[in-house]
Structures are given as structure tokens and as C-alpha cells.
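Morning. Coffee machine broken again, so started the prediction first thing and wrote up yesterday's gels while waiting. Chain of 151 residues, entered below exactly as on the submission form.
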Amino acid sequence: MLSIVLVQPEIPGNTGAVGRTCVALGAELVLIHPLGFVISDARVKRSGLDYWPHVRLSEYRSWDHFVEERAPRLDQLFLFEEHASTSFYDAEYPDDAMLVFGQETKGIPDAIWRRYPGRQFHLPMRSDHIRSLNLANTVAAAAYQAMRGKF
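Came back before lunch.
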């Protein structure tokens, strides 16, 4: 099963929208604490609409706790940042891929980023006028690319 991993997300609406995408794809949503909001926040549920009860949700107190409990293989991890050198189109996603996204304002923490050389990916953009897409949009694009041909 595909997993979407949000590391310390800050904006409840984005997390709600990502949860909705996870339900659509049958993917798991993994939240790495600390969160910038309380998971019961009405804004999370408003963005996730009435789909939120169907989200397969896992939570971990830290990245290290996640790694300790889940022991992801290196080939499962796909870290997304706008400054990564490899396009997400060039990746080969296993069925149990874990797509990792960082905070909306800071991205993936540097300690995590440096820990997985060669596992960093970006979504290509044609305009120099934009640094990045909204987190929920990026997750949706990456998740559908990872699921391509698996429906």
C-alpha cells in the first residue's frame, strides 16, 4: 500500500486535503509529530469533508520513531523538495512506496534530507516565478504518478 508521509505539517487544511487524496487512492496517511495543529481541528475535517473517518491514519512522535517502528527500505522512500535534482517522473515506485513531504514553510528537515542521498525528488515546473506548489497539490500529483498503471 502506498503511504503519504507528512513530516511536521503546519496547515490543517492541507492535511485534510491530503487525507482526502489518500482515501481516493487507498493510501495510508502518516503524520510525523509535532503537528502545527490538533488533529481534531475542524479545519482538518472541513478539508477532508466527510471522508476523514475513512483515512487510514498512522501517527508517530518523531521521524526517528517512525523509522524505528516501520523500518522503511531505502527503495521505499521518496523525499520531495523543490530543490531536489531528480524529477518524480524518473522514479520507479514500488507498490509500498512512502512519499515523504515536509513542512509547508520549511520543507523536510535537513537532518532527514541528508540521511537519504539519492532519494530526493521534485515536481518539474516551467515557470521561474514560482518556488513550489501547495503541499496538497504536490502530494496529489506525486501520489497519482506513483500509482500510475496500478489501477
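The two ends are 12 Å apart (CA to CA). Going to sketch it on the whiteboard this afternoon.
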